[in-house]
Amino acid sequence: MPHAAEPVEETVLAAPCKINLHLRILGRRENGYHDLETLFFPLPEPADELFVRRFAKGSGLVLRCCEPALSGPDNLVARAYRAFKDKTGFAPSLDVCLDKRIPAGSGLGGASSDAARMLAYLNERAPVPLGPDELRAIGARLGADVPFFLQDGPALARGIGDELSPADVRLSGYALVLVCPEERVSTAWAYTAYDEATRGVGFEPESLLTSVFRRNIGPFCVTGLPLSNSFERVVFAALPELRRLKETLFFLGAGAVALSGSGSAMFGLFRDRERARQALAALVRHGVETWLVLF
Length: 295
Description:
Shape: globular
């Protein structure tokens, strides 16, 4: 139940999304996790918002969400709170209302971003804050994308996505059209489908992204840095409407288009900002949820 007392602090935490400029699955571990290499890139929108009220007395978390089905103890925000409490013993009395604006099942990392914001919030107020490595370790146990959202800027990720190194990716002058269709993709299903599709074929051991990335440090697209996603082969086979959406973005003038994460969100990079605006308008007219980001 909501608290009756007056809060000692009220704040709003923005939890922005990410895209994967490149995602390549390199292999499958015995424990079922996959080794991959991906280039994370943060976007300012869409972004979830966490409305947090902290109280002086009591302990525990009251979490509500605009999507009632996400309000339970399995929500990654609640799990992040419990994980931080287990590690530090710090358990402030919080009332949190989560406004979900990043579509679930879109490959934009909304839940991971929410969890990272909660961990960062708690750590900033803990009597004995955790160091960056300790905080990232907690995040990695919650989800492979969480450590990315605990740092700033683009990052090249390896391992299961939790081994991060800063990436010098500059998109100045470009426009990005982000599209979130109605279709949703389960990450667990996508990995299973990819494993079945590649059974007996094997994975490509060489890291194409690393070799190209090291040679190219200028603006994206101009350098020829590959924009691709290993999940597209299985996601497009199961959801051909997403393949048609990719073709539509090319038709509307995008210079490069790729799925983000396991989908279903997709983005197109445009060299011409006016064409990007026209593409946005065309997609919106067809009822597609779309955002425009200018760099």
